[in-house]
Amino acid sequence: MKSVCVMKIDVSRLVEQVQKQKLLFYPVMIHMLGKIMSERPKFRQNKLWSVYQLRRESGETVLVWQEMQEDAEAFLTDYAAACYENLFESGIKVPRQKQTASFGVFYVESEQTIAFAAQAPSFFLHPFEYEGEKVVLPLTVRGNFEDDFMTAFAPRLAEQIRLL
Predict the structure, then answer these.
(1) Helix or strand (DSSP H, E) at 146
(2) CA distances from 86 to 1, 12, 54, 55 (A)
(3) What's phi and psi for 2, nearest 5 deg?
(4) Torsion angle defined by CA atoms of residues 144, 154, 122 and 56, in that order, rounded to the nearest 10 degrees
(5) In the chain, what is the greatest distance between 2 CA atoms, to the nearest angstrom?
(6) What is the dihedral of CA 56, 25, 75, 48, to 10 degrees?
(7) How buried is 121 (Cβ within 10 angstroms: 0-12 exposed, 13-18 middle, 19+ buried)?
(8) What's residue 102's pLDDT?
(9) Residues 6 or more apart from 39 whose CB is under 8 A from it?
(10) Fewer Cβ atoms within 10 Å of its own Cβ: the N or the C terminal residue of the chain?
(11) 10 vs 16, 51, 120, 139, 161, CA distance in Å?
(12) DSSP class of residue 133?
């Protein structure tokens, strides 16, 4: 079922842990979303790839493809390498074969991300909102999801945040 869902996630604990551990919020969030996506039957059978955007110093935005790793530290190491590699080279590094099990995580929307989202499940992170002491992340989820996936999504993400 094609769906679009906008939700607000309390990420106060996640922001606190990311700062405490000197990590970057965006790749940590990509890894958490990847863990949730890997639970879907379609994605369990294939290598899972995340696709995210990177802004080069020139202002150009490119999409970066990265194979998901179960281990967060390994994923974050690969993330740093993929970003570095794509910061300085021209063109987009797309895997040679079509990746059927991929999902996108983007910060707001652009023409590139809209085109990708038409073909694969996508998560759009919006600027933080502050509600008193809480840090809230507006998150748009778009894709072909089963109803039970959407029902379980917010609690699964809250669980991932709690485990960090």
Answers:
(1) none
(2) 34, 30, 8, 9
(3) -75, 130
(4) 180
(5) 47
(6) -80
(7) buried
(8) 83
(9) 156
(10) N
(11) 12, 24, 25, 11, 9
(12) T
Give the SS3 label for residue 35: helix
The radius of gyration of the chain's CA atoms, rounded to the nearest angstrom, is 15
> Which structure tokens are listed for 69?
């790793």
Per-residue tens of pLDDT for the chain, all 164 residues: 567 889 999 999 999 999 999 999 999 999 999 999 988 877 776 788 999 998 888 888 888 889 999 999 999 999 999 898 888 755 445 554 555 678 888 887 666 666 666 678 899 999 999 999 999 999 999 888 877 888 889 999 999 999 88
Q: Where are the beta strands (DSSP E) in the chain?
A: 2-10, 49-55, 61-67, 102-107, 122-125, 129-131, 134-144
